[in-house]
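Students often ask why inverse folding is considered easier than folding. One informal answer: many sequences map to the same fold, so there is more than one right answer. In these notes we will look at a single instance of the problem. The structure comes first.
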């Protein structure tokens, strides 16, 4: 029996049923109108053998709603499968609905449609008012009961399991490196980890980097092992063919001791990093059916499908159909590069179709950006079969890294006083619809802009990571926190990351954005930055001392961890992030606010401090958030246009004066000369 279990691909599916609860959204959604439409999305992993799926809806409906007339219909991937009426109670309600398994796909669109009709003076009110509302809460979820299909020997099967929602949520994935990793091995591990975090949808879970065989990895069933061939664990070294290593870097799946490993190895640093870039490429990993992949210097590993959109972002890939009279809306989310912000010239471009039997004096479409209306346009009968609408996005409208585009229709029927169960009024948003975002670089060196200063065009922007020479478990946890958020925003695997111990060379500091972590005793570069730190250490480097923002008692200074965004002392246009404290554990505390998006959005300054009681401080020390490049004397002169005009006029007048004086001198001097001759 043991031999059967050890044969790859012959392990049976896990007998006991597992459960996984997937949140539908992370914000509260309020819908207004007697006709409501709401969209949400969830994923079913391919390696799940689903036995049961339930939709658990947490919602609240207007207390004025007529429970006998109001109704909600649930659709999955466009197919209606359940309807219900709100309970005859006020406050938060919960509705649990079985999902037909035959309707499940890999990616799923769950839609709520219905009508909220109010009762006024005992009579049902069919006219839309602000009292027609339904609120859907983020606790709404889809709960799966399933059996786990064991991975087969292919690389793509390992990738699916390793990056699966339930695998990561249950803490079963990890990146393993040697106990004393070399800089090239950490660089390769960083590319690999970033490749996984960029496709993760779990907002509160991480994949750690840790030494092979340590407690942090012991219970993690799926591990990517990154190491030079001569530094692989003995148990895995003999699984890698010497002949394969002769050809190039090797990526190979290995099942051993109830663990699934993906070994990423090579004889040279350059090939190891190249193989890690392959492992960080979602497209390549999901396409690889073999158990072993050889990566050479000529292998193309760059991400191909996540390239720049040149400012064009489609709102939908399929037709969005809205049905029913009165107010109907569809919402779309667009992700922008983190290092860009909206500027003049951005537009929402819609391609629409709609019914011809509307009251066109009262029917219109309105577009909202992040809940701010940017414009409306009346619908016309002549353009019902297809029209293009373009609305400008105000240049002063801050959009951040994600834009919510809501397209709302008011579909009025002539003399409409009936409920909108009638399917006649409709509108459709075609896939040609898009938002065009004209952007400009965002250079603020504040945590409100983090981590964009370390990214350019969705990739790592010349990052130098300065680490302690000997890394503790806490140092690895700090590194995991740093890379987790960076990887979320790095949509490509073509950027540049390099690790250093000690103080990097001057040319490295001049041309790189730097992230330094650890204690000043273990990291010489942090020690050299002591005069530039906003929170500085005492002479013995055993704790922080008081500063202009916070009085710090000596014992308290030993219980603080910080993340500090500095301007590079070598190149003011570059940024230095220092994550530090008196001990590795305190440095780790400083990293706990820069690990997830939900944490970093709470910080606006350039220093974050966290103590052992989880009290968090957020301070700003820089007066000028954006680095100001030193202008040449000519540029400074041109900047002062009034002075330029004055000097230009003065110069012209001076030239005219000189010409006039010269002319007069010549004229009168010539006459005097003639007069002298006559005498």
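Output (designed amino acids):
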């Amino acid at each position: 029996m043991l031999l059967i279990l050890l044969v790859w691909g012959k392990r049976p599916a896990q007998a006991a049923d597992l459960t996984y609860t997937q949140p539908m959204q992370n914000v509260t959604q309020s819908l207004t109108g007697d006709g409501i439409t709401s969209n949400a999305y969830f994923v079913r992993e391919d390696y799940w053998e689903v036995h049961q799926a339930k939709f658990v809806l947490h919602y609240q409906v207007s207390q004025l709603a007529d429970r006998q007339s109001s109704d909600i219909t649930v659709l999955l991937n466009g197919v209606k499968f359940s309807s219900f009426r709100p309970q005859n109670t006020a406050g938060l309600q919960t509705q649990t609905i079985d999902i037909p398994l035959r309707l499940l796909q890999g990616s799923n669109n769950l839609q709520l449609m219905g009508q909220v009709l109010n009762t006024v003076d005992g009579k049902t009110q069919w006219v839309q008012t602000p009292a027609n509302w339904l609120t859907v809460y983020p606790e709404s979820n889809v709960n799966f009961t399933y059996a786990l299909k064991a991975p087969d020997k292919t690389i793509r099967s390992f990738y699916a399991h390793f990056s699966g929602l339930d695998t990561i949520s249950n803490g079963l994935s990890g990146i393993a490196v040697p106990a004393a990793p070399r800089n090239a091995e950490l660089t390769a591990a960083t590319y690999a980890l970033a490749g996984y975090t960029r496709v993760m949808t779990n907002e509160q879970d991480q994949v750690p980097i840790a030494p092979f065989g340590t407690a942090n990895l012991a219970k993690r069933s799926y591990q990517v092992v990154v190491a030079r061939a001569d530094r692989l664990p003995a148990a895995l070294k003999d699984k890698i063919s010497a002949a394969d290593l002769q050809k190039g870097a090797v990526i190979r799946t290995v099942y051993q001791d109830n663990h699934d490993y993906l070994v990423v190895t090579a004889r040279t640093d350059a090939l190891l990093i190249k193989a890690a870039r392959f492992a960080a490429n979602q497209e390549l990993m999901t396409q690889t059916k073999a158990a072993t992949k050889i990566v050479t210097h000529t292998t193309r590993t760059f991400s191909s499908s996540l390239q720049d959109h040149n400012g064009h972002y489609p709102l939908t890939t399929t037709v969005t159909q809205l049905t029913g009279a009165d107010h109907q809306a569809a919402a779309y989310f667009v992700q922008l590069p983190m290092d860009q912000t909206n500027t003049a010239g951005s537009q929402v471009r819609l391609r629409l179709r709609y019914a011809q039997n509307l009251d066109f004096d009262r029917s219109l479409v309105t577009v909202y950006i992040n809940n701010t209306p940017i414009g409306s346009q009346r619908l016309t009968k002549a353009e019902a079969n297809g029209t293009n609408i373009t609305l400008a996005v105000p240049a002063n409208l801050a959009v951040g890294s994600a834009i919510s585009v809501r397209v709302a229709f008011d579909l009025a029927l002539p003399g409409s006083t009936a409920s909108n169960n009638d399917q006649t009024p409709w509108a459709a948003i075609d896939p040609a619809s898009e938002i065009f975002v004209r952007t400009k670089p965002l250079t603020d060196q504040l945590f409100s802009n983090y981590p964009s200063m370390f990214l350019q065009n969705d990739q790592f922007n010349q990052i130098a990571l300065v680490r302690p020479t000997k890394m503790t478990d806490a140092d690895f946890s700090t590194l995991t926190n740093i890379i987790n958020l960076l990887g979320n925003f790095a949509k490509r695997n073509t950027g540049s990351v390099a690790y250093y111990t000690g103080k990097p060379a001057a040319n490295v500091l001049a041309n790189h954005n730097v992230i330094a972590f650890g204690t000043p005793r273990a990291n010489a570069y942090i020690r050299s930055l002591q005069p530039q730190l906003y929170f500085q250490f005492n002479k013995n480097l055993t704790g922080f001392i008081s500063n202009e923002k916070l009085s710090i008692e000596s014992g308290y200074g030993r219980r603080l961890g910080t993340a500090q965004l500095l301007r590079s002392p070598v190149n003011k246009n570059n940024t230095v992030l220092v994550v530090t404290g008196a001990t590795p554990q305190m440095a780790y505390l400083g990293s706990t606010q820069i690990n997830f998006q939900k944490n970093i959005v709470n910080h606006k300054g350039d220093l974050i401090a966290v103590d052992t009681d989880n009290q968090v401080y957020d301070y700003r020390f820089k007066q000028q958030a954006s680095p100001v490049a030193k202008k040449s004397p000519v540029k400074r002169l041109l900047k002062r246009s009034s002075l330029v005009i004055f000097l230009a006029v003065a110069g012209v007048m001076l030239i005219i004066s000189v010409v006039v004086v010269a002319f007069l001198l010549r004229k009168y001097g010539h006459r005097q000369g003639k007069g002298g001759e006559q005498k």
